[in-house]
Amino acid sequence: MAIFAANFKCNLTRAQTKTYLAELDAYLGYLEQDSNKHQDSHKHTEVFVFPNQAALLENTYKFVRVGAQNAHCVENGGFTGEIGAEQLREFGIDSILIGHSERRTIFGESQDYIAQKFAYFAKAGFRIIYCIGEDLSVRQSGDVEAFLRAEFEGISRDYKNLIVAYEPIWAIGTGVSANVEDIERTHAFLRSFLNVPLLYGGSVNETNAQEIVRVANVDGVLVGSASLDCARFCKIIESRC
Ligand code: PGA
Predict the structure, then answer these.
(1) Using 50, 70 and 90 to split pLDDT, how confident is the model at 42?
(2) Which of 83, 108, 120, 166 is the most exposed place for a label (fewest CB within 10 A)?
(3) pLDDT greater than 60 at residue 71
(4) Are strands 64-66 and 95-98 parallel, antiparallel or unpaired?
């Protein structure tokens, strides 16, 4: 069982997302049939797509879950530029990314605010992909573990619908993923206090996905750039063990 999640960020239009999702769902249907035929139940996968907010689509696909990249921790109200739980519910959305490094660094989301969001969407029963990851200066200073632990302040680590994505900031969108040894070491550390699925993210593509998915304590991947093309994302999914 592996988890594959596509984060489109601020890319693709609604029309493009619609075509993409139809194509992906059909492909996953074919994969499902194939693994049933060969009784490869271990190859079962869970696939999420997080489209741009303006391209949210009803969550009616058979094999892919559509989720939200972001939302404010409210039902609705006077929060210009935000979407709340009411808007997500209209689309049947029940999964969300929280704590992505682009939200933390570009939009200044504090650990406090992130913890509030987490508590709100956990109470609403959402699948939460909670993102953590250090920048290059932390990696070079050798304080990675303390840094990652601090990103769990205020976060309920035993929330039943939690998935954690480790995404080193220096590997996001750079085309250079962390190496297998670094991923293995960091995931072993995370596993020492987390009993939930652990994803790796940061320049995952169709070439490196297979070796990453095989690393101990890696239960799947969160993919940005390489997920924008449906055929590439399908190849990544084929790397399931
Ligand atoms: P990337 O992005 O695959 O383009 O590095 C990953 C992410 O930010 O989730």
Answers:
(1) low
(2) 108
(3) yes
(4) unpaired
